[in-house]
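Comment thread on ticket #2218

A.B. wrote:
> Attaching the input chain for the structure job we discussed in standup.
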Amino acid sequence: MESDGVAEFMEHRPRLFSLAYRMFGAASEAEDAVQEVYLRWALADRGEIANPEAWLTTVTVNLCRTQLVSARARRETYVGQWLPEPVPTGGGALGPLGTVEERESVSLALLTAMERLSPIERAVFVLREAFGYPHAEIAGMLELTEANTQQIFHRAGQRVRTGKQRFVVSAEHARTMIEKFLQAASTGDVGGLRELLADDVVSIADGGGKVVAAKIPVVGGDVVARYLSKLRRFLGPTARFDFAEINGDVGLILIQDEVPAGVLVFDFDEAGAIATVRTVVNPVKLSAVMV
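C.D. wrote:
> Ran it. Output below, let me know if you need it in another format.
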């Protein structure tokens, strides 16, 4: 019976991790939550569980809601800019990402914006937006009324989708632009960088106080071009950049001495120019890219 319980849990585990990751924006915290859910599953009377998927989903989302309170408190004292933990998604780590909407649901842009939400807003938004649960089922999981979940979802959507619109470009365009970006940045070509950047481009770096990184966003084409042209100064002789699908987008993994040392992810504007550069170099946040 126990082995059957393990096999059944493992069948649902990828979806539970995907849910927990969207709740936290952190792979390490999502792993801890899923492990706790497994312990509760192992101790539960599974004969009384009519719908394992619904039970596991409910336990996961409510556990994440509770833990998100302390996680957000830690982020209030975070040094510098906070960005989600990047996850390589080419192998399906966060579920199917075959549509624009599915890729958007795990983008660093959306996960960062979701920091504006309360734990209950985040739970409703993730369950509805990313997993497509009906409001009636969400209400049952979160012990709310269906009308409540509809109102919360509407409010959460308004709070998340403020500010500059994120445009989706083809993977081919993204790779071409990133290759040009690498060439210009690695040679200190300020002019070449400036040609790739939108006028209102924003560069956000997350070093967590452990690695040197700008503690506030760098804004504006000319300023960002000069800032990013200095990237080469921080690269050792063995450094290289590998292309990878990161959170549904084309991105770069910085490898130093054969160890991942950073991740860069790019957003583009309607003209195809680079609108946002998100750089994660806090080593604590790179566990998911340690391959």
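A.B. wrote:
> Thanks. Noting for the ticket: The two ends are 34 Å apart (CA to CA).
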